[in-house]
Specification:
Order of helices and strands of chain A: EEEHEEHEHHHEHEHEEHHEE
Low-confidence stretches of chain A: none
Oligomer: heterodimer
Number of domains of chain B: 1
CATH architecture of chain A: 3-Layer(aba) Sandwich
Number of strands of chain B: 0
Number of strands of chain A: 12
Structural class of chain A: alpha/beta
CATH superfamily of chain B: ABC transporter involved in vitamin B12 uptake, BtuC
Strand order of the largest sheet of chain A: 6-7-8-3-9-10
CATH class of chain A: Alpha Beta
Main location (chain B): membrane
Number of helices of chain A: 9
CATH superfamily of chain A: P-loop containing nucleotide triphosphate hydrolases
Distance between the termini of chain B: 25 Å
Mean pLDDT of chain B: 84
Helix content of chain A: 25-40%
Shape of chain B: globular
CATH architecture of chain B: Orthogonal Bundle
Membrane topology (chain B): Multi-pass membrane protein
Subcellular location (chain B): Cell membrane
Radius of gyration of chain A: 18 Å
Transmembrane segments (chain B): 52-69, 81-101, 107-128, 135-160, 180-200, 229-257, 269-287, 299-316
Low-confidence stretches of chain B: none
Number of domains of chain A: 1
Largest interface: A-B, 34 and 24 residues
Protein name (chain B): Iron ABC transporter permease
């Protein structure tokens, strides 16, 4: 169980200010979606939440500990990260790749224990990649590779999972699988944060959405309260049909519409 | 792995027994037992033994540093010379030859080479700064390498007489000719320290398969890993180049040759690369001694002739993976 608190966080990359004064407290047991247009600063916010970029102002805290004061290995055991894109620099076998997720738990100079191997098997099972275990990861299709990398992040078995666009290059069936998996993780008491582009998926599965625009947090709350037609127009520059089905929003982008 | 260890032992023994003067194993055993004849003793213990030890050590260091750098820079083209350490060390040695310091004391040349290799790290850190992209490091390394290469050419250009130029050229091509235990004592500590630093970061190299953010999110302190790897390369490769001259290809091809026999993760190829490098360089050195020619062939030439065909076969088999 872990709580991630973001206090007045600002991040600058070079001279460009990318995240501006964002505050939020993210509790264990919830699936939080970060949404916003391209270039809004979603990924940078996520990276700052992991301590991968230093804030220019403000703090990120895991429970009560300031991220900046924690050693990298301690953060790695608390926060699992699924980066955007599918960077893989060596043609590793799937099983070996998923096993990288156990690195934060390994003592120096020791091999993997039965716990580690069980965690790897569980992670592969959950993201439906067990049949691929012997394949070379660089030879897989984009969607298969995305699931393998998700399994890698799950194998950490950290109390929080931060995923950057986990649905990219997945077919609709696997998108639903992955969202169900993230929801499962949240319902089992973990904190799950995901950067998402598909607003309908975000609205259907997330307990809470953070809408980011030009580095600022412009709305924070339950999906139906965040995704209003005025905000979609002002933030995304679109006119969208918003329908509700069994209490969940369906967002259908229709056409461009200039912000007023 | 067992096969590689066997190959290294075999190469080491063969390197003691084979040479222009034939010494049958029985005579060699007598020497090792402490009661051989004077001639066999001199050849074995004073000529061949230091030479074999150096070939094993230098080969292991070059193979290991190639494997570590390919992992760290995530670039299959990386080899010990990309960071400029080899060329800088060579420049130190050439300086010793050019200014005649090498004649003052035999240890001066290798020591200057090691110092120059370490000195080359300074601009590397300044140029690469806090940036963690491997490309910045590679570009900075190329700049240093080119500068050192130009300075070597300048020394050749300005050398006072053809004999001095020949001496520099001969040294640059790499050889274990006429090396003594003095060279072993200079190279050994450097190579041990360098190897220990490089072997330390196997897991960090594995984590880098996922990119820099991925590795750091797995708990890797990239700044420290980089410091260890750069120091390991500078000290180890500096020590190796100091006693053997520039020997190319080993660091580039050995990791590629051993990779298909492992699970291809950067940590898994570190030790096998060291062993294979030791075996390959020792076998090449035996070749240098046995191939009849008026001058001894240069080691860099033989390693290339031995290693490149193996490398090409590997490329043909593995190209679909890249």
């Amino acid at each position: 169980m872990v709580t991630l608190s973001i206090d007045n966080l600002s991040v600058a990359l070079g001279r460009r200010s990318v995240v501006r004064d964002v505050s939020a407290s993210l509790e264990a047991g919830s699936l939080v979606g970060i949404v916003g247009p391209n270039g809004a600063g979603k990924s940078t916010l996520l990276r700052a939440m992991l301590g991968l970029v230093a804030p220019s102002a403000g703090h990120v805290r895991i429970d009560d500990a300031d991220l900046a004061s924690l050693p990298r290995a301690a953060i790695a055991r608390q926060l699992a990260y699924l980066p955007q894109g599918q960077t893989l620099h060596w043609p590793l076998a799937v099983e070996r790749l998923v096993a990288l997720g156990r690195l934060p738990h390994l003592a120096p100079m020791s091999g993997m224990s039965a716990t580690d191997i069980a965690a790897i098997d569980r992670a592969m099972e959950r993201s439906d990649v067990t049949p691929l275990r012997g394949r070379i990861a660089t030879e897989l299709s984009g969607g298969e590779r995305a699931r393998v990398l998700l399994a890698r992040a799950l194998a950490v078995e950290a109390p929080a999972l931060l995923a950057d666009e986990p649905l990219a290059s997945l077919d609709p069936g696997h998108q639903i699988d992955v969202m169900n998996l993230l929801l499962d993780e949240a319902q089992s008491g973990k904190l799950v944060v995901a950067v998402l582009h598909d607003l309908t998926m975000a609205a259907r599965y997330c307990d809470r959405l953070l809408l980011i625009h030009a580095g600022r947090l412009v709305a924070d709350g339950p999906p139906l309260a965040v995704l209003t037609s005025d905000r979609l127009r002002d933030v995304y520059g679109i006119r969208a049909r918003i329908e509700t089905e069994s209490g969940r929003a369906l967002i259908l982008p229709m056409e461009r519409e200039a912000a007023r | 792995m067992a096969a590689l260890i066997g190959l290294v032992i075999f190469a080491g023994i063969a390197s003691l027994l084979l040479g222009p003067v034939s010494i049958p194993p029985a005579r060699a055993l007598a020497v090792l037992g402490g009661h051989g004849d004077e001639v066999a003793r001199a050849i074995l213990l004073e000529l061949r033994l230091p030479r074999s030890i150096l070939a094993l050590l230098v080969g292991a260091m070059l193979g290991l540093s190639g494997a570590a750098l390919q992992g760290y820079l995530r670039n299959p083209l990386a080899e010990p010379s990309v960071l400029g350490a080899s060329n800088a060390a060579a420049l130190g040695a050439v300086g010793a030859l050019y200014f005649g310091l090498a004649q003052l004391h035999p240890a001066l040349l290798p020591l200057l080479a090691i110092a120059a290799g370490l000195l080359a790290l300074l601009p590397l850190f300044l140029l690469a700064g806090r940036a963690e992209s491997p490309l910045t490091l590679i570009l900075a390394g190329i700049a240093i390498s080119t500068l050192a290469g130009a300075a070597i050419s300048l020394a050749l250009n300005l050398s006072p007489n053809p004999y001095a130029a020949m001496e520099i050229m001969t040294w640059l091509l790499g050889s274990f000719e006429n090396r003594s235990f003095q060279h072993v004592w200079i190279a050994l500590p450097c190579i041990v320290i360098g190897s220990a630093l490089l072997l330390f970061d196997g897991r960090a190299l594995d984590a880098l398969t996922l990119g820099e953010d991925g590795a750091r999110a797995l708990g890797v302190d990239l700044g420290r890993a980089r410091l260890r790897i750069l120091l390991g390369i500078a000290i180890g490769v500096g020590g190796a180049v100091a006693v053997s001259g520039s020997i190319g290809f080993i660091g580039l091809i050995v990791p590629h040759i051993v990779r298909p026999f492992t699970d291809r993760s950067p940590s898994a190829i570190l030790l096998p690369s060291a062993l294979a490098g030791a075996a390959l360089l020792t076998i090449a050195d035996i070749g240098v001694r046995l191939i009849p020619s008026t001058n001894e062939l240069k080691l860099g030439v033989v390693t290339a002739f031995l290693g490149v065909p193996v490398f090409l076969v590997y490329l043909v088999r593995e190209r679909r993976l890249w």
